Amino acid sequence: MSILRRLDPAKLKAQKTYNLASAYFDAPPLGFWGRYGRRTVERLALNPGASVLDVACGSGASALPAAEAVGPTGSVMGVDLADQLLARGQERATQQGLANIEFLQADMTELGYPDAHFDAVICVFGVFFVSNMESLVAELWRMVRPGGKLAVTTWGPRIFAPAYEVWNGAVRKARPDLSAAYNPWDRITTPDAVRTLFRSAGILNVEVEPTDGYQPLASPGDFWTIVLGSGLRWTVEQLGPLLAEQVKQEVLEWLAAHRVDRVETNVIYAVATRAPKG
Questions:
Q1: Is the dihedral of CA 129, 85, 160, 198 positive or negative?
Q2: Residue 187: left (phi > 0), alpha (psi -120 to 50), or beta?
Q3: β-pairing, 51-55 with 75-80?
Q4: Which class does domain 9-159+184-215+265-273 fall in?
Q5: pLDDT tens digit string along 11-69?
Q6: 199 CB neighbour count, 10 Å cutoff
Q7: What's the rounded Cα separation, in Å, for the pair 158 and 162?
Q8: pTM for this predicted structure
């Protein structure tokens, strides 16, 4: 199902990138998607029968555990721009026998649900894709019922280190114009930045927890799978086959020479609770 309207260039870029990445999203080297999605849901302590909205849901990393938690009397709506990720999510839901979840292709900034419509709203690795994060967080908070919760999970510092720095250096040599000196998630990679984001959205009752993490690499090639199954995929497409292969070889050779067997995947969890009625 889709209620997608005309998208601006930034959203079209995100949609294309993650549709391309969808074939790799559930590969073992990208196990962090599912790991952090489930841990986000665990922090919500969802009750059976609860209604949940999951925006930027991808292939269901947090939406599917939420559907398990709320049980057959509850409901989960997963929203994303990338229709191919949504299709993977629906396939996984069917395989797991989850009939209480629906996937909707839509813009998370323009959903139009009534105030206080959900017991919980979730956004894992998605809040930084909009230019006005404060407005998005306020909009998600608007849809949370009294006593309900909003969970936002974002990247901490040093994403995919040390491999990312090597990747970025190799891209800079091949195509300087594609080198990412700044990524959208860089805006909120500290607990203070996340707290400030919530305060700016009018939310004071929020628990923020930074957590160190890493993704094991069985071989250097696992990092290239991460590249193909993440937001870095857009750069690969812009490089073209020849330059992409050049970058790949440089990065993998460095990882092998330095015996790198894991990359950092540090995260920051934030959970806000709306005061109950009365």
A1: positive
A2: alpha
A3: parallel
A4: alpha beta
A5: 888 889 999 999 998 899 999 999 999 999 999 999 999 999 999 999 999 999 999 99
A6: 13
A7: 8
A8: 0.93
